[in-house]
Amino acid sequence: MGFEEQAMAVFRRGNDDEVTRLATEELDRAQANGDAEGEVGALAMLARVAVRLGDLKEGWARAEQAREVARRTGDAALEQWPLHILAGTARLAGDIEKARPLAAEAIAAHEALGDVRMLAVEQHNLAHLELNEGEIDRARELFTSAREKAARAGADDLLPELALGVAAVAAYDGEFARAARILGAVDSFLDAEGKVFDPDDFLEEQAIRDKLEAELGAAAFADAYRRGAGEDLRQYSAQ
To answer: Alpha helix locations (H) across 114-229?
Structure first.
């Protein structure tokens, strides 16, 4: 198992201390050996941890550093992760003027590279941004496209994120009990896999949950949420 695969697996389990240890060791190794790809991967992981811990400034700086290293190689594919993190960090910071063009740049880059899985990821992220800005039609279009591309790429690992998008639209449409049931299905899936959401999707889920509890009341929300536990998330990938 290579560094990025190992570090990402640990990150998905929410173990920030271990990710930091692995990334720091990889960064030292890569810089000592002139390994630009390893340096970019290590910096990107350190950026991810910083963002999850709430230090958006540090996360942005690490991602910028990683992107600069990638640019010096001339390898456009190597810029994918830094660009993804920069777009997500700007979105978390509420800086729409930065987030929207970065997301559009990431989408264009993935289209050029033919990376269907990452194209689905970036469309999903931009969809949440557009939904939060009230651009509901654009958000629906992007969420639908993200699900189609994830299915084409066979990216079952994205099922929780894709289902979260369905829940976000359902909450917007006033289908509060359905949205709560989807959240129950999403969380039970993540628990079974021993994984957690990335920071941006974690905050989106919290915002949806807060809205649903306010609309339904705590008891009705909890009932619908429990009914969703164990549901197959694939049923939402086609919606």
So the answer is: 116-132, 136-153, 159-172, 176-193, 199-216, 218-228
